[in-house]
Amino acid sequence: MTRSVRTFCRICEVHCGLVVDVEGTPGVGGGERVVKVRPDREHPVSRGYCCVKGLGLGALHHDEDRLETPLKRVGGELVPISWEQANREIGARVRALVDEHGPRAVGMYQGNPTFFSLAGTLMSAGYVEALGSPNVFASHSIDVNTKFHVSTEMYGLSLVQPVPDLAHVEMFMCLGSNPLVSQMSVVQVADAAGVLRAVEERGGRVVVVDPRRTETARRVGEHVAIRPGTDAYLLAAMLHVVTREVGVDLAPARAVARGVDAFVAAGAPWTPERAEAVTGVPAATIRELATAYAAADGAALYCSTGVNMGPFGSICAWLVQGLNLLTGNLDRRGGLLVPRGAFDTLRLADLVGLGRFDEHRTTDGRWHRVAGAFPVAALADEITTEHPDRTRALFVTSGNPVHSVPGGRLGAALERLDLVVSVDLYRNETAAHADYVLPATDMLERSDFPASHQSLQVVPHAQWTPPVVAPLGERRTEWRIFSDLALASGVRPWGTTPAHLLPRLNRLLARLPGSPQVGFEQLLAVLLRWGRRTTLGELRRRPEGVLLPPTEPGTFLGRRVATPDGLVDLAPADLVADLERLAAMEADLARPGVLRLVGRRDRRSHNSWMHNNPYIEQPDGNTALLHPLDAEERAIADGDEVEVRGEAGAVRLPARLTTDVARGVVVVPHGWGHRASGASRARARAGVNVNEVVPGGAPHMEPVSGQAVMLAHVVEVVPVAALSPTSG
Ligand SMILES: Nc1nc2c(c(=O)[nH]1)N[C@H]1C(S)=C(S)[C@@H](COP(=O)(O)OP(=O)(O)OC[C@H]3O[C@@H](n4cnc5c(=O)[nH]c(N)nc54)[C@H](O)[C@@H]3O)O[C@H]1N2
Ligand SMILES: Nc1nc2c(c(=O)[nH]1)N[C@H]1C(S)=C(S)[C@@H](COP(=O)(O)OP(=O)(O)OC[C@H]3O[C@@H](n4cnc5c(=O)[nH]c(N)nc54)[C@H](O)[C@@H]3O)O[C@H]1N2
Ligand code: SF4
Ligand SMILES: [Mo]
Questions:
Q1: How far is the centre of ligand 1, averaged over its atoms, from the C-alpha of 143 (Å)?
Q2: Boundaries of each 4Fe-4S Mo/W bis-MGD-type domain copy (predicted)?
Q3: Between 495 and 77, the higher pLDDT residue
Q4: Which ligand is closest in space to the CA of residue 605?
């Protein structure tokens, strides 16, 4: 008998609706088999859109390389142990470390999929908080710390991230994103490329600013090629034109923001002509784009990781937000809106401490927490630098930091820890340094609600999913894993609220057949009732999801801005001060003849964790893209093996020549390099990890937000044949 269960994908921010066909008897031990995953045509937003990664969720669920039992390192090998033993031993070691060195000895790294699991987010944070440790690191500091930092300053809350009103926008300017491949980031929109095409079909304009003519730029809009790392100069010049040449009326901005004059001054030195010399974008193009943007009846500037990860990520996020506000495009139809969600996730994040800056600093006093986490680029130093509060134990949940953090130093640093625990689906490259590896459920094995992404929806909606199938093997939800670890460590998450009884209650319930767990749905039901837009009952009755009221323009400025005086801060002091770096780095960034390294993604990959999926025909993506003229100067032919050398190290991979890449740019994707993986197919097509080339640590952190600077580093590319004449 086949049953069909509605759910949604939680790999990327789209959260596509899916229908999963399952055979076998429901429940643990029923031999359930996912026979097919289909796009859900009745989903109110994705309406049948999805990608191969979502369709591969059944194969992910059944992958024989998945973790099935807890593992412990014994004599260098990871061997299976019971959950009871794992919890007891880890709990005892945590207690001993906290007793001897204090709570800060224990750290937590939350990887990207953490934020796609409400229970995982709440319980992993609840565990370290219960221990009394502020020592949280998260993948957003190798992704979007810049935007979170800037929003905390400008709007009072990190998670205020205005989203483009793509249904009505007249001009959409997209910097450093490849929507057709990535579906964008920090905005939730289904079929991003289709939506952008629709903008054009309506007579609107889409501009893609990118050093590479990307899959998106080939199919939609106008492509503006830019020199890597130089978007800040382009944006400053747009500000220059908008304020000094177009002469936009500043009065409306003054009514809702402070620091207008200081913000305008940021653009003063940057004439389009001066910006042309560093960005490579012709002054006439800059002038035309800025003028059209200021004149459009609804326009949105948007930047993503290709900008966040550059040398001026925070300045860019600030200029983007400020320009959108100054031109009247913030909080208006066709511009940018600030969605609210089924419940006010912005307020909730504030209540749980993710909203604002707090008093906690890294042990060297240099970095504060952004959206509740220290920059992970500082983690190696937090482990290796002698200090009473140095990190001595690390939990890694849904993350692969040894692989995803630049600099190639973190693996060696983890070897110095007294305890490393990885909670994951696979034995990934980080698990190679772990003392314990704990098997988590995948997204078909747990119930969920996409709370982290509620305030990022272009089309507001809500959906709840039950677990589609029972967990295989001994996999457990993070809800249970971290609450059991808390009990074993002698602490209670949410100790001041009635919720602190949940871990104990669940420990008792776990003895019943099927190990039922309570608390998660009940908590969600309360949050939804608080939000008053839908209920858990309604979401259970409408498993395909429900539309919420559209975000109304005019509901943010002067009303929901969370700064002390309710005004947007257009001139935060640290950002104004950081402007100095623009002039200081201008000449270097314009330097001719060098190659600068940038990244790219593939539709079939997802960071480091899609290369083992047998359903997904794996891309031949681990190549270095170069412009043919840059290749010729270095005697490189298409397909040659090349060595890409940076400050941190070197990797070897095949070169591909294409005029899609601007001169002076080399493109190498991240996510590859699986020699140390415990997943067999990924290991077999290992590829190389670009983060062994990208330099890491303090000198390469964006000074305002602590975001790791991962783009635009100068590298050398040499043909391997020239290095070792005997080869080939
Ligand atoms: N298929 C797939 N989808 C994904 C992911 C994945 O790995 N695979 N990852 C997900 C995650 S975690 C995230 S954060 C999002 C990211 O989503 P995006 O931010 O859209 O990321 P990318 O697709 O890497 O696009 C970044 C673009 O920036 C360009 N770029 C590089 N340097 C510069 C520069 O200096 N200036 C400008 N203007 N552009 C530059 C690159 O050439 C690239 O085209 O994607 C998500 N979606
Ligand atoms: N050079 C370079 N480096 C980059 C980037 C880049 O563009 N260039 N991109 C950066 C970006 S945007 C990001 S977001 C980071 C990502 O960095 P990380 O989050 O550190 O790494 P991922 O590769 O996403 O690994 C996610 C892990 O979570 C596991 N996992 C998946 N689902 C679950 C689950 O439900 N529960 C548990 N417990 N585990 C799960 C997967 O098996 C995988 O091992 O990488 C960053 N690194
Ligand atoms: S676009 Fe693909 S990966 Fe992203 S949510 Fe949809 S099915 Fe999942
Ligand atoms: Mo990301």
A1: 10
A2: 2-65
A3: 77
A4: 1
pLDDT at site 439: 98
**Three-class SS state of 2:** strand
Mutational test site, ligand 1, from 215, 223, 305, 595, max ligand atoms within 8 Å of CB? 305
How many H-runs (helices) and E-runs (strands) does the chain carry? 28, 27
Class of domain 165-339+566-573: alpha beta
Candidate of 8, 307, 404 to mutate for ligand 2, largest count of ligand atoms within 8 Å of Cβ: 404
Does ligand 1 come within 6 angstroms of the Cβ of 713? no
The reply to whether CATH 3.40.50.740 applies to domain 71-144+345-456+461-547 is yes
140 in contact with ligand 1, CB cutoff 6 A:
no
Architecture of the domain made up of 593-722: Beta Barrel (2.40)
Enclosing H/E stretch for 175: strand 171-175
Which ligand is nearest to the Cα of residue 138, counting in written order?
2
* pLDDT tens, position by position, 483-510: 999 999 999 888 878 888 888 888 888 8
Q: How confident is the model at residue 320 (pLDDT cuts 50, 70, 90)?
A: very high
Question: Is the pLDDT at 517 greater than 90, yes or no?
Answer: no
Q: Which atom of ligand 1 is nearest to the CA of 216?
A: 44
Instruction: Tell me which residues have their CB closer than 6 angstroms to ligand 2.
Output: 111-113, 117, 120, 139, 142-143, 305, 397-401, 404, 406, 423-426, 428, 440, 442-443, 478, 599, 607-609, 670, 690-691, 694, 710
SS3 letters for 355-417?
CCCCCCECCCCCCECECCEEEHHHHHHHHHCCCCCCCCEEEEECCCHHHHCCCCCHHHHHCCC
Contact 423, 481 (CB under 8 A): yes
> What phi and psi values does residue 238 have, to the nearest 5 degrees?
-65, -40
Where exactly are the structural domains of the chain?
Answer: 2-62, 71-144+345-456+461-547, 165-339+566-573, 593-722
Q: Which residues contact 679 (CB under 8 A, 6 or more apart)?
A: 63, 65, 426, 427, 428, 611, 612
Q: Ligand 1: does its nearest atom lie under 6 Å from the Cβ of 399?
A: no
What would the pLDDT profile of 41-58 be if each residue is shown by its tens digit? 999 999 999 999 999 999
pLDDT in tens, 184-224: 999 999 999 999 999 999 999 999 999 999 999 999 999 99
Q: What is the pLDDT of residues 217-269, one digit of tens each?
A: 999 999 999 999 999 999 999 999 999 999 999 999 999 999 999 999 999 99
Q: pLDDT above 70 covers what percent of the chain?
A: 99
Comparing C-alpha atoms, which of 376, 375, 377, 383 is closest to residue 413?
Answer: 383
CA of 177 to the centre of ligand 1 (A): 5
Per-residue confidence band for 728, with pLDDT thresholds at 50, 70 and 90? very low
pTM of the complete model beyond 0.90: yes
φ and ψ at residue 462, rounded to 5 degrees: -140, 145
Alpha carbon of 603 to ligand 3 centroid (Å): 10
CATH architecture of 2-62: Single Sheet (2.20)
